């Protein structure tokens, strides 16, 4: 990560320009807003529905949809992470029993990064 953007107070498109690749994992509106931050010849990939075809074409970028997340895709993401291609900011790790607490914290918008729910190994 080169810079952290607090999406609650700053629109990412006001800070990000000329990105090689953008992965939209949020919604259609975010996908539409992302077109303007991808450099000509770059790519916008969405896992939450098709990117807007006409704006992509006008911007000179490639747009693709990967479809729903599945086990095969997650394996590829793990490979990229293991290769150091990207990093995920983890705010905290909680036991699975605290899933409701994790959900409440996430929805409240006070989390900086992801909350990991840890499943305890079974006792033998």
Determine the N-to-C terminus distance.
41 Å
Chain oligomer state: single chain
Helix content: 25-40%
Strand arrangement in the largest pleated sheet = 1-2-3
Q: Work out the helix count.
A: 4
Order of helices and strands, N to C?
EHEHEHEHE
Q: Structural class given helices, strands, pairing?
A: alpha/beta
Question: Could you tell me the radius of gyration in angstroms?
Answer: 17 Å
Total strands? 5
Written overview of the protein:
With 124 residues, this protein is an alpha/beta fold. It is 29% helix and 24% strand. The protein has a three-stranded parallel sheet, with helices on one face. A two-stranded parallel sheet has the order 4-5. It is globular.
Briefly characterize the structure.
This protein has four helices and five strands; from the N terminus they run E-H-E-H-E-H-E-H-E. With 124 residues, the protein is α/β, with parallel strands linked by helices.
Question: Which tags fit this structure?
Answer:
124 residues; alpha/beta; 3-stranded parallel β-sheet; two-stranded parallel sheet; globular
